[in-house]
Amino acid sequence: MTSEVVENEFEFYSKAEKYWKDVPATVDGMLGGYGHISSIDINSSRKFLQRFLRDGPNRTGTTRALDCGAGIGRITKRLLLPLFKTVDMVDVTEDFLTKAKSYLGEEGRRVRNYFCCGLQDFSPEPNSYDVIWIQWVIALPCRPAAQRHRGHQGQHGSGGGDHGRCGQQRLPGPGRGP
Ligand SMILES: C[S@@+](CC[C@H](N)C(=O)[O-])C[C@H]1O[C@@H](n2cnc3c(N)ncnc32)[C@H](O)[C@@H]1O
């Protein structure tokens, strides 16, 4: 029974990985052909997120955010980079992260890490992120990083630590060389 579950899980992730390899590295690709709703999608997310960033005793820090299943960086570019000092991106599709380095433009220099990794294998360093964001991905992995990270970040989060652990590769950032 146990091995059956594990096997299926492996197959599930392998199929998903293959699927995303064939998807164009564009906003339309990220949204399954619904690229035209990108702005309204991001504006709604911003409204939601800003509720947690307003002044008050439980205000969330703005030092460091993690974009889970970040793709080409649609969310990193228009939602997270304007609100956080630095952002890390994690995605299983290497081509998307490569594309992100040009898609993000100048502001992309504030992306500290491009983790090429399945979320099911990604363990963020405790207390590393003020916000862990996942958009248009949550139905895909079984046990995303955000779930495992819950309870690890400081209440107000300082942004501190450096890397998440990942069984796969960490891509060099732009200008940082391989
Ligand atoms: C629908 S796109 C959304 C991309 C981005 N969040 C956005 O809103 O534009 C889904 C993304 O999740 C990534 N993905 C799918 N399964 C994943 C997994 N198990 N671990 C990490 N990333 C995954 C895909 O490579 C793709 O970039």
Automatic annotation (TrEMBL):
CDD domains recorded for this chain? AdoMet_MTases
Q: Which SUPFAM superfamilies match?
A: S-adenosyl-L-methionine-dependent methyltransferases (SSF53335)
**Disordered: region residues:** 148-178
Question: Is Methyltransferase there in the keyword field?
Answer: yes
Which BP terms in the Gene Ontology apply to this protein? methylation
Q: Which organism is it from?
A: Lonchura striata (white-rumped munia)
Q: Which GO terms describe its cellular component?
A: cytoplasm; nucleus
Keywords of the record, alphabetical order, are: Methyltransferase, Nucleus, S-adenosyl-L-methionine, Transferase
Which InterPro entries does this UniProt record tie to the protein? MeTrfase_NTM1 (IPR008576), SAM-dependent_MTases_sf (IPR029063)
Q: What is this protein called?
A: protein N-terminal methyltransferase
Give its localization: Nucleus
- Give the family, as the similarity comment puts it: Belongs to the methyltransferase superfamily. NTM1 family.
The principal localisation class reads nucleus
